[in-house]
Design a protein that fits this description.
By secondary structure, the chain is an alpha/beta fold. It is 52% helix and 16% strand. β1 (2-9), α1 (13-32) and β2 (38-45) form a beta-alpha-beta unit. The protein binds uridine-5'-diphosphate and magnesium ion (MG).
């Protein structure tokens, strides 16, 4: 079996040499154990501005199992991963995706391959606990999974983008035309036989997270709006609620008017004007989010452009 490990890299020069050493070791082990007789590493350089691509080219020259794709622009983790998986869907029996900082446990790759060999098309790497995360990241991430599931997005709890996919699962994924990628949701929706592998997530070896809070929030919002239209329904429910409240207010106002009582009313008027105005703007923003998504989808722009490839002999049939 031919296994390809796909590694998206964005400004990862600090960790890449070590990552490469460790992943090469994994490939050799898998080969020696007879789990994957052929293996390769595919690094996808997501438009890095540091020495990442030079390193990848070096690896490819030194080792025929290594390939590299240099994307012309920084298109983001999900699209970069897609580029690698697209390649894998053509040239490998299965692909494992893993972040360049190796926060995910490389020893799990072995278990993933075993699960694949016993029939799973998708093997999710699931984090056992989040002790290595800051209190803040742990809680925001957990809140995100809860919200996502409450809104009907089918995501595997504590699974990010560390997973194995068989060739047919990859090909099914490649048949999804959407440009807004939320891979963990899309993969879960494919519905092939799947398995889970549990591991403890480590801290980043070096360098800094490429996901600051702002990117995390926009990724979470993106994920929700890519996968669920329930926020739109909640807007409608909120609107109905306001109508109900307004009926009560109208009755109250008429009664007071008929009784000849003048209403002071400035405070209540002002508060409700601001409240309703804010609600309308929020609702418009949510609808706008979906309209923006539709706009991006209908443009049908290519997901990425490959500027340069290195050492692709590994991936060729
Ligand atoms: N990454 C990428 N493009 C980007 C941002 C990140 O390819 O625009 C890669 C990055 O090199 C790493 C993975 O995505 O391999 C996850 O990034 P990071 O480790 O910084 O995220 P975190 O683990 O902090 O969520
Ligand atoms: Mg990381």
């Amino acid at each position: 079996m031919k296994l390809l490990i796909v590694v998206p890299c964005y400004n990862e020069e600090e960790v890449l040499a070590d990552t490469h050493r460790q992943l090469s070791g994994v490939l050799s082990e898998l080969r020696d154990e007879g789990l994957a007789d052929e293996g390769g590493l595919l690094y996808v350089d997501d438009g890095s501005r540091d020495g990442t691509w030079a390193l990848i080219k070096g690896f490819a020259v030194a080792d025929s199992r290594v390939g590299g794709l240099k994307l012309a622009h920084n298109v983001g983790h999900q699209q970069a991963l897609w580029a690698g998986m697209e390649w894998a869907s053509l040239h490998a029996d299965a692909a494992v995706s893993i972040d360049a900082d190796l926060q995910d446990d490389i020893r799990s790759i072995r278990d993933m391959v075993k699960a694949y060999r016993s029939g799973a098309d998708i093997v999710y790497g699931v984090r056992r606990e989040r002790s290595s995360d800051t209190f803040f990241k742990k809680n925001t991430a957990q809140g995100f999974y809860r919200l996502m599931n409450a809104l009907g997005g089918d995501v595997v709890y504590n699974h990010a983008d560390f997973r194995l996919m068989s060739r047919r699962a990859l090909q099914a994924l490649m048949a999804c035309p959407e440009r807004n990628l939320f891979l963990r949701g899309m993969v879960a929706a494919l519905g092939f036989p799947s398995a889970k592998v549990y591991y403890d997530r480590k801290e980043r070896m070096a360098g800094e997270s490429k996901y600051p809070l702002s990117k995390m929030i926009s990724f979470a919002l993106d994920g929700i709006t890519s996968f669920s239209v329930r926020p739109l329904r909640y807007i409608a429910i909120l609107g109905l609620l306001f109508i109900l409240i307004s009926v009560a207010v109208i009755v109250y106002a008429i009664v007071r008017y008929a009784a000849g009582e003048t209403i002071q009313g400035w405070t209540s008027l002002l508060v409700s004007v601001w409240f309703i105005g804010g609600s309308i703007l929020t609702a418009l923003g949510i609808i706008g989010e979906y309209v923006g998504k539709i706009y991006k989808e209908v443009k049908r722009r290519p997901r990425y452009f490959i500027e340069e490839a290195a050492g692709m002999s590994v991936a060729q049939d």
